[in-house]
Structure formats: C-alpha cells, structure tokens
Amino acid sequence: MENIVDFLSTALPWIAMALLLAFFAVRESGTKKKQEKQGEYGTEGMALGVCLGVAISTAIHINVGIGMIAGMVLGLLIGSGVKKKDE
User: Fold this and answer.
1) Where are the beta strands (DSSP E) in the chain?
2) pLDDT in tens, 30-61
3) Nearest CA-CA partner of 80 in 33, 36, 30
4) Average pLDDT in the chain
5) Residues 47-50: contacts with CB within 8 Å, 24+ apart?
6) pTM of the entire structure?
C-alpha cells in the first residue's frame, strides 16, 4: 500500500499538468475556429483554485504541491464554465 501512495504522490502532479496542457490545447483550437472570442473566468478560477487548494491541502496535511495543482485544474474547469456578460 505504501508503494501505491508513493507512486501516486510522484505521478499525480505530472498527470495533472499533462491534462491541463491538453485542456489548453483543445480549448485554444476551438476558439481559433470562432472569430469572436467569448469571455470567461478561467484565469480568475485558476487563481482562486490555487489559493483554496493550498489552504485545503495544508488543513488536511497532504502535499501542498498536489493541492495546488488540483485546485488550479478544478478552478480552471469551473471558471471556464462561467461565461462573462457583455457590457
């Protein structure tokens, strides 16, 4: 069981970064097809996700790096789903 935990704590940040890069690539190719760019809260979600991920990972005593990356990915996913209103 200890080997599994060691493997996950080592591999999970790399898997999360690969998924994040894949998400950026797919999102960027989709926006190039559309001429007008719609606003979203992706960057704000990532910033808040990093802060909350670090706070939660510190509170439950897990690796801060894993909490930061998980918070960033979740914040990006939630922030990308919320569209900005045109003003």
Assistant:
1) none
2) 655 554 556 778 888 888 888 888 888 888 88
3) 30
4) 79
5) 47/75, 48/75, 48/79, 49/73, 49/74, 49/75, 49/76, 49/78, 49/79, 50/75
6) 0.55
As a three-state string, the secondary structure of 7-23 is: HHHHHHHHHHHHHHHHH
How far, rounded to the nearest angstrom, does the alpha carbon of residue 59 sit from its chain's CA centroid?
20
CA–CA gap between residue 65 and residue 8 (Å, rounded): 13
d(CA 73, CA 83): 17
Question: Which residue from 21, 26, 27, 18 is spatially nearest to 80, judged by alpha carbons?
Answer: 27
Q: With b meaning 16 or more CB within 10 Å and e meaning fewer, what string describes 16-32?
A: beeebeeeeeeeeeeee
Domain ranges of the chain: 2-81
